[in-house]
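Hello again, I could really use a second opinion on something today. I've been staring at a protein lately and its backbone has me curious. Please have a think about how the structure follows from the sequence. I owe you a coffee for this, so here goes:
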Amino acid sequence: MRYVADQRVVDIPLTFFNSVVLSLLIYFLVRLQPSAEQYFIFLATITLVSIVMKTWFRAIAAAFASQEAAQALAGLSVLILGIFSGYSIPRPSIVKGLRWITYINPLKYGCAISLSFHEMRC
């Protein structure tokens, strides 16, 4: 447990630096609204989604003994999370038995937060 906590402490500054670089490029190249408040919400969203997805992939890696199986499931999980984020397939069109995936999907919440504070309204 101590190893996981230490890994989080080391990951946060590195993830924040990567998120700052990525958000500076994306935010101003796409020409989203030039407001400091909206930029910092965008930066916080990217940072939090990055940390959550790193944790997701580490949990998958911890669940499998072989690296190949973990990578296969990680790739499949990104595909599933992307499809069920509510933007590829609208939530009302998703089969009722699979709608629970939208509630545990960090990509859905990241996109919703990011879009709600910018050009589009969710």
The chain is about 70% helix and 0% strand.
